[in-house]
C-alpha cells in the first residue's frame, strides 16, 4: 500500500513539477524576450491564470470522472454552445424580460437544465444500448451541434446584460467569479471522487467492469449520473463564461472536448479508466493555460504555439509512461 | 553598470534634445485568426514590420486563433501587462465588448481594427481603423449592376450571395451594403439566396455546388471576399457552368489572377498592409493626443477586368 | 439455399443493416426528388465524397488495428499545402513524390510512437493534430498556396479530368479501395492487422510483430492522406492552410457507420466505403429536399446510433444492453 502511494506521489507530482518548470522558464525567458516590463510571475497575472483556466477547466474536471469510468465524452463542446445559446436567448423571452433582474438566475437555471438534459440523453443511450461512449458522444457531438444551428441558424445569439457582466467580472478576495466556480467545482468533485461511495464505484467500474457488476454496482445508472454531471459542468462553464461576454457564435466550443481530454491526460488520468485524480486534472488545466500565456508572453507566433503544444502533449505522455513503468518494476521487486 | 546606462541615456537625451514622444510606447494587438487566410497573415507581417520600423514602438502581437475565450484572455493579459494601447481585431463583434470596457476603465485606449465591434461598445473605444465595409458592399453591387447592364441582362439577372462568417461585423456590413444598393441600381435583378461561406474557400465551394444543384439559372455571384469568390468560381468550373459574373471583395492574388484570365469580373481593392499600418498609426496618434476620426477609414477602390492594370497584384 | 427462418432473417437484417438502410435511403430520396438518382448527381456525390473516402479507407486499417487517428485532417492540409508549394518550385513531377515522402514521414513518426513506443493513439494523434498544423503554417508562412499558372499544368488531371466519362477522383477512389480491400482480406498482413486489433496480447504471444503491424497501419493511413491531399490540391489548384480541418471526425463517423469497432479487430474496406457514401448521399439528398444543413447533423447522429446499435444487438442477441 505504501508502495502504491509513493507511485501515486511520483505520478501526481509530475504535472506540478512541469508547471514549476514552465514558471521558471517563462520568467527567465520573459526577462530577455518579452517587451513587457511586467514580471511573468506577477501575482495579478497568476490570479488571471486561474480565471482563464476556468472555461476548459470546469469541463475537464467533469471529464476526469467520466474517464475514470473508462468512458469519454466528445460532445461537451456542443453542450457548452447550446447551453450558452439558451442562457443568452432566454433573457430576451418576453416573460423573462418582464421579470427584470430576477430573470438572470432563471436563465442560469435554464442553461444548466439544458446541459443536464443533453448529458442525460448521452447517458441513457450508453446505458440502454451498450454502445461505446466514444461512438455515442461522437454522434451526439454532431447532433447537439445541429441543435445549436437549428436554434438560430448561423447567426450569433447575443444579449449583453451589464448586470450579468458586472457579476461575472466581480472579484471577491482577489479572485474572479469564474475562479470561484473553478475552485468550487474542484472541491466538490474532489470530495465526490475520494470520499463517497459514488467515487469509489467510479474507480471500481473503470478498473474492472465485470467485477464491479458482480460486486453489485449498478453500472448503467452510475454512467448516467456521470454523464448528467458532465453535462451540468459543461453548461456551468458556458454560463460562467458567457455571462461575461454576452454573445455566442454557433461554432463556439468546438475542439473544447479535445482540450479537456488533453488536460485530463496531462493530469495523469488513464484513458483505460480506473485511475485518475481531480487535483491532477486541475494541474493539467493550469499547465496548458500557462503554456499559452507564457508563449504569448515571450512573443511566440501562432505556428510555434501549435507545434509546441502538440509536441509537449506527446512528450508528457511518453514521460508519464516511463514513470509508470518504473513504478511497476519497483513493485515487482 | 546601472550608472553607465543612466549616463548613456543622459548623453542620448542631450544629443537629440528632449522630445515629448521619444518615450517608447508599448502597443498590444490581439488578432482574430492568423493562418486562416493570407490576408490575416500578411496583415500580421506588415504590422510587425511597421512596429519595428518605428523606434518609439514596442509591439506585443497575439493571435486568438478564432476562439473568443482565448481573445478575452489575451485582452486581460494585455491589461495586466499595462500596455499603453490595445489594438483588437474582434473574433466576435459583440462578445469582446465587456473586455473592451475593462481596458477602457483601466485607462488603456482601445483601437478596433479591420472589423468593427457592435455599436453598444462604441463608448469604450478610441477609434476604429479599417475599411468602410458598407461602402464596399454597395460598390460591389454597383460593379455587378454595371456588368449586367453591359451584358444587357439587367432586367432578368439572378444573383446568389456567399457571405462571410455570420456574426462577424465585416460580413454583416458588406452584406448590408450589397443588399441595400443592388435594388437601387438594378431594381429588376433578383437576389435569389444568401448563404454564409465563413471566409473559407472550401466551404464556399460547397455552398456554390449546392446553389448550382438547386438553381438552373444563376447569372451573378457576390462573395464577401475573393477567397470565397474563387471557391465559388471553382465550383462553377467543375460543373461546367459558364457566363456567370463573379464579384468579390478584398482582392486576393487568386482573385486578381482569375480576373486576368477573364473568369472573374471584379472586386474591391483592399491592402492588408494599408490596414495594418493604419491601425498602428491610429493607435500612435491616439497616444500622442492627436485628433483622429472615430471611424478612421482607408480608401478601398473598385477593381474590375477593365481597370485592373492600374493596380499591382496583391501580395497575399 | 438456406431456409429463410424468422431468426436468420433477423440476423441477416442486423448484419447487413447498414446496406439495407443505405438502399432504403436511396429509394426514399429518389421518391422525393427524381433528380437525386440522375447519373450526373450520383457521380457528383461520389466525386465530392472521394477525398473523405480515400482517407477513411486508410483510417479503417488503423481502427481495425485497435487504434485511432485524429491527425488525418491536419495532415491532409499539410499534404495539400506542400504539393501546391512545391509544384511551382520543382515542378509537379517531383512535387508529388516529395509530398508523398514527407507525408509518409509524418505517418512513420506517429506509427513509431504508437507502435514501437506503445503510446496511446488518441493522445498522440491529438498532439499531432496540433503539431502538424503548426508545421503547415511554418511551411507556408500562413499564406494561401496557389499555383501560378492554373491553366497550363497537367497537375489538374487528378482532381478535374475524366477518363471515359468517369471523373478521375472516382477512379482513384475505386482503385485504392479495391487494392486495399485485397490487402486487408487476402494477404497475411491483412490477417495480422485483424489479429493485432482483435487481441493485441494474444497476437504478440503468437509471434505476430504487433509494433511493426501498427506502424504499417499508420503508414497506410498517411499514404491515403497523401492521395487525398493530391486530389484536393489538384481539384482547386490553390488552398488555405486549414483545408482539412475537422475532417478527422467525419472520417471516424464514416468508419464507425461502416461497422468497424473502435476496440479493433473488425471492419472492412467495403463497409467503410458504404459508410462514406451514406454520409455523402444523405448530405446531397437533404440538400435536394430543400432542408437546412443542420438537419444533416441530426440525421447523421440518429443513423450512427441506430447502425451501431443494430450491429451490436445482433452480436449479443439482445436489443437492450445487459448493463444493469
Explain what you see.
- With 333 residues, chain A is an all-alpha fold.
- Chain A has a domain at 62-255.
- Chain A has 14 helices and 4 strands.
- Chain A has helices at residues 2-33, 43-68, 76-90, 94-99, 103-129, 133-152, 162-169, 177-195, 197-207, 209-214, 219-245, 256-266, 278-297, 302-332, and strands at 157-158, 171-172, 175-176, 247-248.
- In chain A, strands 1-4 form a two-stranded antiparallel sheet. In chain A, strands 2-3 form a two-stranded antiparallel ribbon.
- Mean pLDDT of chain A is 86; it is low at 327-333.
- Chain B is an alpha/beta fold and 316 residues long.
- Chain B has helices at 2-16, 38-53, 68-80, 97-105, 133-151, 169-185, 201-214, 226-238, 253-260, 272-287; strands spanning 25-31, 57-63, 85-88, 110-113, 127-130, 158-163, 190-196, 220-223, 245-247, 266-268, 295-297, 302-304.
- In chain B, the strands form 3 sheets. Chain B has a 6-stranded parallel sheet, sandwiched between helices. Chain B has a 4-stranded parallel sheet with strand order 7-6-8-9, sandwiched between helices. Chain B has a two-stranded antiparallel ribbon with strand order 10-12.
- Chain B starts with a helix and ends in a 12-residue tail after the last strand.
- The model of chain B is unreliable at 1-22 (pLDDT under 50).
- Chain C has 324 residues and is mostly helical.
- Chain C is built from 14 helices and 4 strands.
- In chain C, the strands form 2 sheets. Chain C has a two-stranded antiparallel ribbon with strand order 1-4. A two-stranded antiparallel sheet of chain C has the order 2-3.
- Chain C is globular, with a radius of gyration of 20 Å.
- At the A-C interface, helix 5, helix 6, helix 11, helix 12 and helix 14 of A face helix 6, helix 12 and helix 14 of C.
| Element pattern of chain C in H and E | HHHHHHEHEEHHHHEHHH
Largest interface: A-C, 50 and 52 residues
- What does the radius of gyration of chain C come to? 20 Å
What is the number of E strands of chain C? 4
| Whole-number mean pLDDT of chain C | 87
Biggest sheet of chain C, strands in spatial order? 1-4
CATH class categorisation of the largest domain in chain B: Alpha Beta
* Helix and strand pattern of chain B: HEHEHEHEEHEHEHEHEHEHEE
Would you tell me which CATH topology of the largest domain in chain B applies? Rossmann fold
Q: Indicate the percent of residues in helices of chain C.
A: over 70%
C-alpha geometry of chain B? elongated
CA distance, first residue to last residue of chain C: 40 Å
Could you say which overall geometry of chain C the principal axes of the C-alpha atoms support?
Answer: globular
The DSSP helix count of chain C reads 14
- Strand proportion of chain B, as a percent range, falls in 15-25%
Structural class assignment of chain B: alpha/beta
Amino acid at each position: 500500500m505504501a508502495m502504491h502511494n509513493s507511485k501515486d506521489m511520483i505520478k501526481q507530482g509530475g504535472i506540478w513539477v512541469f508547471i514549476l518548470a514552465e514558471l521558471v522558464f517563462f520568467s527567465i525567458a520573459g526577462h530577455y524576450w518579452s517587451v513587457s516590463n511586467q514580471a511573468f510571475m506577477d501575482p495579478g497575472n497568476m490570479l488571471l491564470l486561474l480565471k482563464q483556466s476556468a472555461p476548459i477547466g470546469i469541463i475537464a474536471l467533469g471529464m476526469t470522472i467520466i474517464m475514470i469510468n473508462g468512458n469519454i465524452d466528445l460532445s461537451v463542446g456542443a453542450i457548452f454552445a447550446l447551453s450558452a445559446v439558451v442562457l443568452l436567448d432566454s433573457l430576451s423571452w418576453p416573460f423573462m424580460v418582464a421579470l427584470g433582474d430576477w430573470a438572470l438566475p432563471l436563465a442560469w437555471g435554464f442553461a444548466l437544465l439544458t446541459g443536464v438534459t443533453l448529458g442525460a440523453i448521452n447517458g441513457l443511450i450508453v446505458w440502454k444500448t451498450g454502445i461505446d461512449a466514444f461512438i455515442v458522444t461522437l454522434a451526439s457531438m454532431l447532433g447537439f451541434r445541429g441543435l445549436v444551428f437549428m436554434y438560430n441558424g448561423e447567426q450569433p445569439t447575443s444579449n449583453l446584460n451589464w448586470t450579468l457582466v458586472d457579476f461575472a467580472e466581480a472579484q471577491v478576495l482577489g479572485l474572479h467569479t469564474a475562479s470561484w466556480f473553478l475552485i468550487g467545482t474542484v472541491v466538490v468533485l474532489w470530495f465526490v471522487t475520494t470520499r463517497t461511495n459514488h467515487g469509489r464505484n467510479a474507480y471500481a467500474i473503470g478498473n474492472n467492469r465485470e467485477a464491479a457488476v458482480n460486486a453489485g454496482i449498478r453500472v448503467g445508472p452510475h454512467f448516467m449520473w456521470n454523464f448528467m454531471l458532465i453535462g451540468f459542468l459543461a453548461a456551468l462553464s458556458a454560463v460562467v463564461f458567457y455571462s461575461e461576454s454576452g454573445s455566442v457564435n454557433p461554432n463556439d466550443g468546438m475542439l473544447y472536448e479535445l482540450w479537456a481530454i488533453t488536460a485530463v491526460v496531462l493530469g495523469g488520468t488513464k484513458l483505460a479508466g480506473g485511475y485518475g485524480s481531480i487535483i491532477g486534472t486541475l494541474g493539467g488545466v493550469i499547465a496548458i493555460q500557462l503554456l499559452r500565456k507564457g508563449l504569448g508572453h515571450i512573443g511566440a507566433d501562432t505556428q510555434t504555439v501549435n507545434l509546441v503544444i502538440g509536441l509537449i502533449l506527446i512528450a508528457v505522455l511518453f514521460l508519464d509512461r516511463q514513470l509508470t513503468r518504473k513504478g511497476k518494476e519497483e513493485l515487482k521487486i | 553598470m546601472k550608472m553607465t546606462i543612466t549616463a548613456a541615456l543622459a548623453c542620448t537625451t542631450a544629443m537629440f534634445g528632449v522630445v515629448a514622444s521619444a518615450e517608447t510606447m508599448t502597443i498590444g494587438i490581439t488578432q482574430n485568426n492568423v493562418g486562416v487566410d493570407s490576408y490575416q497573415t500578411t496583415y500580421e507581417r506588415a504590422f510587425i514590420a511597421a512596429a519595428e520600423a518605428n523606434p518609439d514602438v514596442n509591439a506585443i502581437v497575439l493571435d486568438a486563433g478564432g476562439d473568443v475565450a482565448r481573445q478575452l484572455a489575451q485582452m486581460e493579459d494585455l491589461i495586466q501587462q499595462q500596455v499603453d494601447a490595445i489594438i483588437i481585431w474582434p473574433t466576435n463583434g459583440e462578445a469582446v465588448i465587456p473586455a473592451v470596457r475593462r481596458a477602457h476603465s483601466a485607462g488603456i485606449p482601445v483601437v478596433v481594427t479591420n472589423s468593427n465591434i457592435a455599436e453598444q461598445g462604441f463608448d469604450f473605444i478610441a477609434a476604429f481603423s479599417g475599411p468602410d465595409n458598407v461602402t464596399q458592399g454597395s460598390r460591389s453591387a454597383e460593379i455587378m449592376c454595371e456588368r449586367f447592364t453591359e451584358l444587357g441582362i439587367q432586367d432578368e439577372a439572378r444573383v446568389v450571395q456567399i457571405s462571410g462568417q455570420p456574426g462577424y461585423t465585416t460580413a454583416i456590413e458588406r452584406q448590408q451594403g450589397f443588399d441595400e444598393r443592388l435594388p437601387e441600381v438594378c431594381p429588376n435583378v433578383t437576389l435569389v439566396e444568401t448563404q454564409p461561406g465563413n471566409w473559407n474557400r472550401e466551404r464556399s465551394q460547397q455552398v456554390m455546388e449546392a446553389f448550382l444543384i438547386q438553381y438552373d439559372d444563376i447569372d451573378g455571384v457576390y462573395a464577401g471576399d475573393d477567397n470565397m469568390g474563387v471557391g465559388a468560381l471553382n465550383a462553377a468550373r467543375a460543373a461546367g457552368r459558364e457566363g456567370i459574373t463573379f464579384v468579390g471583395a478584398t482582392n486576393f492574388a487568386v482573385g486578381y489572377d482569375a480576373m486576368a484570365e477573364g473568369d472573374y469580373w471584379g472586386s474591391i481593392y483592399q491592402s492588408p498592409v494599408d490596414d495594418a499600418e493604419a491601425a498602428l498609426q491610429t493607435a500612435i496618434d491616439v497616444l500622442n493626443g492627436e485628433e483622429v476620426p472615430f471611424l478612421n477609414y482607408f480608401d478601398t477602390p473598385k477593381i474590375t477586368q477593365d481597370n485592373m492594370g492600374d493596380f499591382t497584384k496583391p501580395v497575399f | 439455399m438456406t431456409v429463410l427462418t424468422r431468426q436468420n432473417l433477423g440476423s441477416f437484417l442486423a448484419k447487413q443493416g447498414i446496406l439495407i438502410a443505405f438502399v432504403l435511403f436511396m429509394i426514399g430520396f429518389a421518391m422525393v426528388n427524381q433528380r437525386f438518382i440522375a447519373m450526373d448527381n450520383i457521380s457528383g456525390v461520389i466525386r465530392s465524397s472521394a477525398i473523405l473516402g480515400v482517407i477513411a479507407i486508410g483510417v479503417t486499417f488503423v481502427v481495425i488495428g485497435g487504434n485511432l487517428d485524429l491527425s488525418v485532417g491536419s495532415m491532409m492540409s499539410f499534404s495539400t499545402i506542400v504539393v501546391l508549394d512545391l509544384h511551382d518550385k520543382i515542378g509537379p513531377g517531383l512535387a508529388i513524390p516529395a509530398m508523398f515522402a514527407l507525408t509518409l514521414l509524418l505517418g512513420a513518426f506517429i506509427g513509431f510512437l504508437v507502435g514501437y513506443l506503445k503510446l496511446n493513439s488518441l493522445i498522440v494523434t491529438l498532439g499531432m493534430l496540433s503539431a502538424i498544423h503548426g508545421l503547415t503554417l511554418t511551411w507556408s508562412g500562413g499564406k494561401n498556396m496557389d499555383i501560378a499558372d492554373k491553366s497550363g499544368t497537367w497537375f489538374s488531371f487528378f482532381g478535374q479530368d475524366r477518363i471515359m466519362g468517369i471523373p478521375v477522383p472516382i477512379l482513384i477512389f475505386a482503385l485504392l479501395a479495391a487494392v486495399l480491400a485485397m490487402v486487408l482480406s487476402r494477404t497475411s498482413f491483412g490477417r495480422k492487422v485483424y489479429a493485432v486489433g482483435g487481441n493485441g496480447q494474444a497476437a504478440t504471444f503468437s509471434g505476430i510483430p504487433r509494433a511493426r503491424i501498427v506502424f504499417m497501419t499508420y503508414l497506410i493511413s498517411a499514404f491515403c492522406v497523401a492521395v487525398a491531399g493530391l486530389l484536393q490540391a489538384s481539384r482547386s489548384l490553390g488552398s488555405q492552410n486549414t483545408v482539412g480541418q475537422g475532417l478527422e471526425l467525419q472520417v471516424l463517423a464514416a468508419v464507425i457507420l461502416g461497422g468497424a469497432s473502435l476496440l479493433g479487430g473488425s471492419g472492412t474496406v467495403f463497409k467503410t466505403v458504404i459508410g462514406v457514401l451514406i454520409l455523402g448521399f444523405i448530405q446531397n439528398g437533404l440538400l435536394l429536399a430543400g432542408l437546412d444543413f443542420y438537419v444533416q447533423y441530426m440525421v447523421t447522429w440518429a443513423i450512427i446510433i441506430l447502425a451501431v446499435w443494430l450491429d451490436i444487438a445482433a452480436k449479443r442477441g439482445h436489443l437492450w444492453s445487459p448493463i444493469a
